[in-house]
Every structure is written in C-alpha cells, then in structure tokens.
Design a protein that fits this description.
The protein is about 30% helix and about 20% strand. It has about 600 residues and is of the alpha+beta class. The protein has 2 domains: about 200 residues, Beta-galactosidase, Chain A, domain 5 (Distorted Sandwich); about 280 residues, Alpha/alpha barrel (Glycosyltransferase), CATH 1.50.10.10. Strands 1, 2, 3, 4, 5, 6, 7, 8, 9, 10, 11, 12, 13 and 14 form a 14-stranded antiparallel beta sheet that branches. Strands 25-26-27 form a 3-stranded antiparallel beta sheet. A hairpin with a 4-residue loop joins strand 9 and strand 10. The chain is globular. The termini are far apart.
Amino acid sequence: MTDVPISEYALLSDCRSGALVSRAGSVDWWCPGRFDAPSVFARLLDPQAGYWLLAPVGDPSPERGPSSERAYLPGTLVLRTEHHTADGAVEVVDALAVAPGARGHKIGMASPQVLIRVVRGLAGSVRMRAEFVPRPQYGLLTPYLYNGADRLVSDCGPGRLVLRGDVPMTARDDSTAVAEFTVSAGERVGFDCAYAETYGAPEFVLDRVAAVTDAVEAWRSIQAIHRYQGRYPELVRHSALVLQGLTYQRSGAVAAALTTSLPEEIGADRNYDYRYAWLRDFAFTLHALWVGACPDEADRLFDWMARSTGQIGPRPLPVMYGVEGERCLGETSLDHLRGYRGSRPVRIGNEAWHQHQLDVLGEIMIAAHRLQHTLGDFDDTLRTLLVGVADKAAETWREPDAGMWEVRGEVRHYLTSKVMCWAALDRAIRLAPKLGDRADPARWTRVRDEIRATVLDRGWNPQVGAFTGAFGSPDLDASVLVLPIARFLPATDPRMRATIEAVHDQLGSDGLIRRWPDDPAGFVLCAFWLVECLVMLGETDRATELFERTARRANDVGLFAEQLDLTTGAHLGNFPQALSHIGLINAAWRLTMPDLSDLPSDGAS
C-alpha cells in the first residue's frame, strides 16, 4: 500500500514527536524522540522506508462498504478506528504514550517514546494481520530483527525498537515480521512499540490499556485549559488541540508541520522540511492560543524565542530554528527515497533558516503588544529583544528580502515585508514605556511614517487597481491580505477594499485562494485571511460562507495540510500544517468579535 492520499492520515502525538496512521491501519510515519528526528517508519515517502500495519484480513462488510470509520476520542489525539468485515467488527485504538500521570502542559516534558495499538472485538470474529517493517534513518538502515523471550527487537544504528504483543510475531530473514490472529467480540489484543537509544537507557515498559487511558486523560486535561467562548467552538478547540500536538513541550516551540517533503505540487520539487519552528508561526500561534484562552503559553513561547534568537546583531534575524533553538539547519537531499508519489527531492533540513525575511520583525512585535498584559513586567532579556527587533526594522526596511513565502532565488521589495516593518515600529512605539532606556520612540516614529508613505506610494498599482505583491510588480499576492489584519490600513479604505475583491476574484477558485497567479494550489491560511478581511469589510455573510466552506475541507478527523488542489480539493503539502489550523482559529474569533483589535479602531498613525 503506497501513495495513500495525504488526507487519509491521522495525527498521533506525545508533544515531543508524532506519528501518522492511515485509515487502513498503517503507521507510515514516525520519528521518535522529537519531531525532526530520523524516522523509523517512512513509507509515506517511499514504499521501502518502513511501516507498521494492523488491519483486518479479508473482504469488507457488504452492508457497510470498503471504508472504515474513525474519529479521535473526544477531546484527545487518541484515535479510534472501527473496521467492519463480512465476519464481524473490531475497533483499533492508537496512541502515543505520555509520561504516566502527566497532565496539562507537562505532557511531553518527558516521553516514554512508545506507540500503542489495541484491538478490541465488537461483533463476530475478525481475522487481523500485523506487519512490522522497521527501516530506521529514513529507510537507510535494514535492522537486525530477532525474537526475545517476550518481545521482537529491531536493532541497528543509534536506536532500537522493541515490539511487545499479546500474540507472537516471528522475525523473518528479510527483517520483517508478520502475524495473523482472530479477535472475537469482547476480546482484546494489544501491541506496543518502544523506541530507545542504542547506547542509552532501556526502553520504557508499560501496561497498554492503562497507558491509553492515561493518554486520554492527559489530552482532556489540555483541552480543559482552552475555555474558548466564541463561534465554532468545536472546530476551534480541535484546532487548538492540533497545535498542542505539534508543540515540543520541553521548549514550547511549535513545529510548522509533522512531516518533510510532502509536495506542494505532485511531481514537482517544492518539497521542504517543515519540522522546525518559524518565528512567523510563533507569532501567529501566540494569537491563536490567546484566542483559545490559553494565555499561560505566552511566557514559555517568548522565552523560547529569546533563547533561540540571542542578541540581535548586524546579521539578519534567522526566521526559523530547531525545536530546542538550533540555528544551523542545513539542507540535505535523501536521494535514496522516491518521494511522495514520485515528488523529489526528499529534503531534511531547510535552507530557509538563513534567508532574509523582514516580515518576522513585525509579527514578533504584534505578538508582544497583543500579549503585553499576559507577559507582565518585561524583564531585561525581553526588553533587549524587543528593542533590537524595532531597531532592526528601522535599519533594514529598505532592503529587499525573500518575502513571507520564502522564495528561493532573487530577492525583491515585497510589500508585506515593508508593512510588517511598519508594524514592528508601530507596536514598539506603543510599547516604549515598557522597553526601558534604550527605546527610541522619536526615531521609530519618523521611520514608521516614512515606511507608510513609501508603501502607499509604491505598493499601490493603479494599472492593476490593487496593492500588489512587490514594488513595481503587476502580480497580485494574497499576502497583502495582512494589511488590514496588521492594522496598516482599514479594510474599508477604498484601495484595500479593491485589493480584497481582486484577491477574491483573481486568486480565488471555488473558495480556494492561491498565493499568486501561478500558484498550483489553494493555500489554506489565505482563505482564512480572506475571511477576516471580509468580516472587517462588514461582509459577514460572505465571510461566514467562506469560513464554513473552507472548514469542511478538513479531512475526516479535522486535519488540514498546507494546501488544497484547485480541482479535486485533495490535500497537498506538509501535514498537518500548523498555519492552517492557526488560520481557522483566528478567523473564527474574527467572526465572533468583528471589532477585535489590540489597537484603536482603525490603527492609523
């Protein structure tokens, strides 16, 4: 089984790492230890790169058809899949174990690194098949696989997997193991696969059923913190839970996605590693968590950012980091992997780590301004960081950059980059009383007003009748939808209104919004940005219709990839994508509070 649609996968998480399990019961992606660690199962990217299947044998139920039903247990990222065959029905519960008794944001501070799968008979007798095919290090290693007294051990390279189960699985010469067994109504058969470092502590041993119950209670303790009171509460709470599932709790960093190299376009080469933490995502995430009534995360996220960035010096501020603050994320192609549906190269690492992207300066300052009361009195580290961000915006706003879409190649004067430098200075001026003696609001005001005048003069294209993506460019770009969201211009300004309608009409396709005219797919975040802009225009009915249409495009367990195919609606890009879920949360809140702002009514200066 290969080339499974991206939407067929569900996320499992222990807030340190994650796994993807298909509707058919195959774990095709797992990177134990941390999100950006090497995989032990990676069939998602190549048929030969490892998997763990647990599924019924034989024909499906003629009454119910070939599809299985699945859903997360309410308030959790513990997955329940119900399979029906001609002979009966079973449920399979999948979970990544959490540290025993861990609750709230302590989930993930330590991790057992154990993947649990439990089958329970519901009706009749169902023949089940298990296939265990570990291939560590992105499929580069074929492990030694051998049977112990009560376990199956996969041993090779820096890590080992230990599989325990209620039925025996015998190692074969090709480093795979297969077992078939029957589960009758009321019976339960469980497995757990534990990862451990070869030269470290032994693997964690646990009681499977108790561990699943503990994971359920742990996830529900997180959701209990999210006391959202706005529109679409179930959608918002679930998306907030997905963000928690992508959070590396030891540091508080949020991975942009669980995967690497799922393509933006099938067969093309825009296949990047998104298992890192972007400053842009950090800022958007803070707002989403604030909306979701989880403000206690702000301190940890700002602490992670300050530790990661260090002192801001003459070099461009890096835009992304490893989840523990690593800066050098050099990119490597894994040429032995075929790639998802033949989309190559498969990359680990991401060269965007050293790109010059000016918009992150504004996003940091907007987040600090919005959450200033939650953050309390600014300490010396935070004051130094924010003053450095403002000074960097004042010094570099005239420079070309790679833009928020991280275009590789020639840098340009992207409109959104200039606007976000304006936002950095605008919020710094407002925060100046809290920033200490190094704050320079008089200088910041002069530069902020210069940026505003320049953007209004050079960013508006009279031939196009809209703000375009870069100075002097005739091309629309959906990133300009952030202008009213950042309070640079009211949405009701005639130029902004014209731009919003142009993006809707010229970049839209059946409710999907492309980033630019030649973009091969709709970008989920852009659709939610458009929802916010329509609300700010007073077009609440249009905004509601677009929000609900976009929300329905999530997969059956409420997950979004980065993009959606313009023709089929198929999910594309890395999965699940934090920005897509952040967009949903923020759009739902905008629909709840149309006048939502951390500034005066129009934000004009």
